[in-house]
Write a structure and sequence with these properties.
2 copies of one chain form a homodimer.
Chain A lengths: L2 H11 L12 H7 L2 E6 L9 H11 L2 H4 L3 E4 L3 H12 L4 E6 L4 H9 L3 E5 L7 H12 L2 E2 L6 H20 L5 E6 L4 H13 L3 E8 L4 H8 L25 H8 L4 E3 L1 H15 L9 H8 L8 E6 L6 H9 L3
Parallel strand pairs in A: 1-9, 2-3, 2-5, 3-4, 6-7, 6-9, 7-8
Helix pairs in contact in A: 1-3, 1-8, 3-5, 3-8, 5-6, 8-9, 9-11, 12-13, 12-14
Chain lengths: 324, 324
């Protein structure tokens, strides 16, 4: 896993990925006590950065292998990213999703042309086992959500854009806060920043109770979450950091930042009122860290990646109700 | 009023304006029955395109005149655009606002450093008269919301961006739908398209009951709205098309498109779920026309400008409630 894979992914993504802008608001700067720049990947195709990794992985396959189809397991955003990338390449996609994933994510994945297989997240069977079974029966290529070099490379293109955009904004030294599940986006961004903006430092952000990466970075070895359900930040809940991603996170990232669910909801409401973007709870964790934990960050500015916006209206209203 | 003024405004705005992307979703294409491209000016500084005109006008002033300050009358978006532009230039701003404007717009305008003067929109005194009074007493320069060449030039920079972005997307012939109040944005975009993309045609979009521009274009002379209050699309309610803007609209634009308030609310909900952007009712009128009146448009694609996102949480929840 290296910067050349990320640059190659950027070339394959060109013309297909959306280059998201950097947003800002003086009202957010006031809250954080420093300049806040937001990379709204909720505006990416399919409503999250996962389209980058999906496209990168599908486009990297040998055409003869790709045409048999791909398979992915995902609580929703990776599912949609892979489904749309597969459809654009004209190949079938099977997506294994937890039955308790937000309805909108399940519906969207089906509408994007994928065959959706639901499983019980609280039950005994791991999604990895189910995925393996389908993959073998139909000769589908498994596209993992984060522990795959081409997926990490695709997510890392976000970091290439941030490096160039931060320079254009005159930001030299800053923490780049990233909502972190398995660490695909965080490690990809960390590698891109190491190459193109070494004074920007990636930092994983997680919700309280699901802070496996923060604890793993602190202890120096992979730590697991004790539970995988019950939180509102479903998009970034994974059992533990990935085997490919954790060494990269350990080498390059600053300490993790942990926020409460209430802080994530408040960040959603502020993204609504100040940036005019729709962010899901898991996608608002880094913005919550930027706004409410800025004393834990270094530099005159802080950059936060809002990773996704696939949120049901009821959950969004819960966030809005905190402001009115 | 000509294209050279718009190109000069683009040079003054460079580095200060946000270049908003073009967004899209296959789900919106399905509703319209053709490709839909959305220019989200809700993501512009201050949450609406009005920042462009405000910056253009303030930056065009002679420094000795500018330092005395500026004054504007506005239901909210022009107010914020002028307030932020004045603050960035280090000069005072007085803003005359209707007392029934959304609270968020009044609060934001004050927070951006402007002195806000409220007036009764239903009463007898015109905002123009009040503005004139302040302007004379304090030697402030009045920045009109649309009938000012430098304001039209600033708004027209949106059209320069649309022309280049449509070309990059392979769109040659299309209607460009614009939420229309006094016609500053619509006429500016029309002039920019005439120069840079003559096969793209600007079309004003209005809410039912406040369709002065549509009726004026149909009759060939300026027609007034019979009422100025009671609607939810406050951002684009003006008495009649402007004296500078109407001749441009007449010469260059296609017929107006009128949508219902319910269609504007549905467009807000779809912008939430499919584009992850926050749009106010008046800013969603063009998207509503693209989605629900596409049979009135020409070309294989339709481009809609979402002009603003300064909406109170309660109104936004009203839109979300239509989907759940």
């Amino acid at each position: 896993m290296n910067i050349d894979l990320i640059r190659a992914a950027a070339r394959r993504l060109e013309g297909h990925v959306r280059h998201t802008p950097l947003l800002s608001s003086p009202f957010l700067d006031d809250i954080a006590g420093k300049r806040v720049l937001v990379k709204p990947e909720c505006l990416q195709h399919t409503g999250s950065f996962k389209f980058r990794g999906g496209w990168s992985a599908v486009s990297a396959l040998d055409p003869d292998i790709r045409k048999r189809g791909v398979i992915a397991f995902s609580s929703g955003n990776h599912a949609q990213g892979v489904a749309m990338a597969a459809a654009a390449h004209g190949v079938p996609a099977v997506i294994i999703m937890p039955a308790d994933a937000p309805r909108m994510k399940i519906d969207n994945t089906r509408a994007l042309g994928a065959e959706v297989v639901l499983y019980d997240r609280a039950g005994g069977e791991s999604r990895e086992d189910i995925g393996q079974k389908y993959s073998e029966a139909r000769q589908l290529t498994l596209i993992k959500p984060y522990d795959d070099p081409q997926v990490i490379a695709g997510q890392g293109t976000t970091g290439l854009e941030i490096a160039a955009q931060a320079r254009a904004e005159g930001v030299e030294t800053a923490d780049v806060l990233v909502c972190c599940g398995g660490g695909g986006l965080t490690s990809g961004i960390a590698l891109a920043l190491e190459a193109d903006a070494p004074d920007l430092r990636a930092r994983p952000c997680e919700p309280q109770g699901f802070d496996d990466t923060t604890r793993s970075l602190a202890s120096g070895k992979i730590e697991r979450n004790t539970t995988l359900s019950g939180g509102i930040c479903d998009a970034i809940v994974t059992p533990e950091p990935g085997k490919l991603t954790f060494p990269i996170l350990s080498r390059l990232c600053g300490p993790g930042i942990v926020v409460t669910e209430d802080q994530a909801l408040d960040a959603m409401a502020l993204a609504f009122s100040r940036l005019k973007i729709v962010v899901e709870p898991g996608g608002a964790v880094a913005l919550a860290a930027a706004l409410f934990h800025s004393q834990e960050t270094k530099g005159d500015a802080v950059i936060a990646v809002c990773t996704g916006g696939n949120v049901d209206p009821d959950m969004f209203k819960t966030a809005l109700n905190r402001t009115s």
